[in-house]
């Protein structure tokens, strides 16, 4: 009975984080962009510091008419937003936030699980583009798939370097094996992993598939109302997952300069929030890449860097073991 209660409590905690943190990131993005670019609207909704902006957005999406194109495959069209969103909920179950088994479910092959499940998200975009009965949506979905497939490999290689260094595929095991001198040694892999993650989320400057100057809004052109909001929520949930994974794999997760294990969850949260700010900062700082530049970055820059990081890890492991 106690085991069932413990499992239920962990699942409820993961679900609450899944519902709350993406919305917090979305609200933060409104405010950060408002300050960086002098946007007035998000700073006035509701009065004090625009606190009601997120509420206004939610009401707006709820009021919009739910339209399904006449020629669309209705079931696939309606299912696509859930397929894009749910993988991030499953990934959160395996991400440790603190010591002493503070994780939804510890997995022996945690890295393989999170990367495999995150890759399922591409099916949501493909389903949305194909089922919309719109050639622009289909083209946007194919470009999204091409981008995600290109950046999946450097992301996997960068994560493999950390697993090799720690000698385990378990996420809690990687954090327990972490040493602070890993940071300068694995920094290249961390940059590759974070950059590839941004591209998989189609975040600027990698938002070519959904850029309004290219193909309207890509695979999501025909979506309205709450279904469109689910795709946006998937993006913000992806930011939470990417930042949390980067902090776990490359920044020591719950390890901090002081506070001991009791504040482990706080250090994980702080690192995740700082990385989320970097994601927002990159959006308002750099212009988007062209399609050819986007693919070139993946195949000629990130993949060679990830392979070099693996080679360096192998050399360091041999030197340490000898």
From TrEMBL:
Entry keywords, A to Z: Cell membrane, Membrane, NAD, Quinone, Translocase, Transmembrane, Transmembrane helix, Ubiquinone
Enzyme Commission code(s) on record: 7.1.1.-
Catalytic activity: a quinone + NADH + 5 H(+)(in) = a quinol + NAD(+) + 4 H(+)(out)
Keyword Cell membrane: yes
Tagged with keyword Glycoprotein: no
Chief place where the protein resides: membrane
Regions crossing the membrane: 7-26, 76-97, 109-132, 153-175, 181-199, 228-252, 264-285, 297-320
Subcellular location: Cell membrane; Membrane
Domain of life: Bacteria
Membrane topology: Multi-pass membrane protein
Record note on quaternary structure: NDH-1 is composed of 14 different subunits. Subunits NuoA, H, J, K, L, M, N constitute the membrane sector of the complex.
Family: Belongs to the complex I subunit 1 family.
Function: NDH-1 shuttles electrons from NADH, via FMN and iron-sulfur (Fe-S) centers, to quinones in the respiratory chain. The immediate electron acceptor for the enzyme in this species is believed to be ubiquinone. Couples the redox reaction to proton translocation (for every two electrons transferred, four hydrogen ions are translocated across the cytoplasmic membrane), and thus conserves the redox energy in a proton gradient. This subunit may bind ubiquinone.
Name of the protein this chain belongs to: NADH-quinone oxidoreductase subunit H
Organism for this UniProt entry: Streptomyces decoyicus
Organism lineage string: Bacteria, Bacillati, Actinomycetota, Actinomycetes, Kitasatosporales
